[in-house]
Amino acid sequence: MPDSAVILLSGGIDSTTTLAVAVDRGFEVRALTVDYGQRHRIELEAARRTAAAMGVKEHITTALDLRAFGGSSLTADIAVPKNRGEADIGRGIPITYVPARNTILLALALSLAEARGDRQIFIGANVVDYSGYPDCRPEFIAAFAKLANLATKAGVEGCEFTVEAPLIALTKAQIIQLGTRLGVDYSLTHSCYDPTPEGLACGRCDSCLLRRRGFREAGIPDPAVYRPFED
Amino acid sequence: MPDSAVILLSGGIDSTTTLAVAVDRGFEVRALTVDYGQRHRIELEAARRTAAAMGVKEHITTALDLRAFGGSSLTADIAVPKNRGEADIGRGIPITYVPARNTILLALALSLAEARGDRQIFIGANVVDYSGYPDCRPEFIAAFAKLANLATKAGVEGCEFTVEAPLIALTKAQIIQLGTRLGVDYSLTHSCYDPTPEGLACGRCDSCLLRRRGFREAGIPDPAVYRPFED
């Protein structure tokens, strides 16, 4: 029987490519998507589409409303920054940072993994073409893996949890090339932090800018549908 | 202005006493209660009562349904063990363990603390008269504090988060004596894992047994209302 792994799946490029990597490595995949009150809730639909397209064996969407906490332009009524220069993205931590989000997401993935008897957790974190979020760094991932083995019954009983971030050192272009080789259909994914109500991407938030540059550098057409915008 | 701290408040003896300790140390307190689909949801009412009685400045109850994960008699249709001998409680990890619960709770507390600018988190974990849960141990608390400072914008920017578990080395009797000295009204608290629909405590689950023994050893009457039971 193949090993089974929990994947945090947001519906964006990174998590979808991570899912493809896990499938390619022979894992049966359990996807976990968290509806945390994000402004771009439309990504939840993308997660459903990609999970279905890639044949996961279970897809759980858990609701957790972080809007009561606020503190981020993704969960509170704070404008999403637009048209930041490429030099600014990744320098400093922007207002789209959601306090402790990846700690919460990994804690939920750990809970699901332990409840189901899985030992492997995959997360699409990466630190090259990224937004400067502290909870994407390798030292954070390593600290979480250590915590996971102290925190759980399974860990105490000697079944080691591992947390894999296979994209951690890749550029966005390399991620897109990798996913394309693995057959990912990126038209199913969603990246924009600030889409129109109909789901059109803004083209100008950090997430859109990183996506557009990634496809451009990869030499692959970006299948996302953008609202009209001027650079 | 007094420092402000986030307290994880379940409505039981330990978290309520921890709240009293934080108030006694001069903190303004923000209480966080998590409705995770626990069988004993009536404890949420106890959390509301104790938070109000102790004058917290903010009380947030966040919903997160862990029943979809299952794996515990507190979140799935698995019977709560009754009348376990005192020698058995704390030996091995019982079925009432909720996978990675304290990791999730602390991650949420960290998120709230960072969003509000608080640096101190209190949790009522203790490892003397307890149920053997791995995520109550001092090494887990220390690992989480380390993670918190890697995971967050505030941590990266040099504002250190601390995670305090002031009851960690106390017996249940000592906790009750401490809380009584600090003016805690334990009639407002709820401990039972398996109450009647009306909220009467069963008297026989691990949590009731630890509570009853704690009050007995403290020489203080237990104000909980139990359904009729035989020892």
What brief labels describe this structure?
11% strand, Rossmann fold, homodimer, 35% helix, alpha/beta, 5 strands, 231 residues
Order of helices and strands of chain A: EHEHEHEHHEHH
Class based on secondary structure composition and strand pairing of chain A: alpha/beta
Give the proportion of residues in helices of chain A. 25-40%
Stated plainly, the CATH topology of chain A is called Rossmann fold
Unreliable parts of chain A? none
State the fourth-level CATH superfamily of chain A: HUPs
If helices are DSSP runs of H or I spanning 4 or more residues, what is the number of helices of chain A? Answer: 7
Q: Count the beta strands of chain A.
A: 5
| Whole-number mean pLDDT of chain A | 93
Strand proportion of chain A: 5-15%
Q: What does the largest sheet of chain A look like?
A: 5 strands, parallel
Quickly give the CATH architecture of chain A.
3-Layer(aba) Sandwich
* Amino-to-carboxy terminus distance of chain A: 51 Å
- With strands numbered from the N-terminus, the spatial order across the biggest sheet of chain A is 3-2-1-4-5
- Shape field of chain A: globular
Explained architecture:
Two copies of one chain form a homodimer. Chain A has 231 residues and is α/β, with parallel strands linked by helices. Chain A has one domain (4-218): Rossmann fold (3-Layer(aba) Sandwich). Helices cover 35% and strands 11% of the residues of chain A. The first copy, chain A, is built from seven helices and five strands. The first copy, chain A, has helices at 13-24, 43-53, 101-116, 138-151, 153-156, 172-181, 206-218; strands at 4-8, 28-35, 58-63, 120-122, 162-164. Chain A has a five-stranded parallel sheet, sandwiched between helices. In chain A, helix 1 packs across helix 6 (172-181) and helix 6 crosses helix 7. The mean pLDDT of chain A is 93.
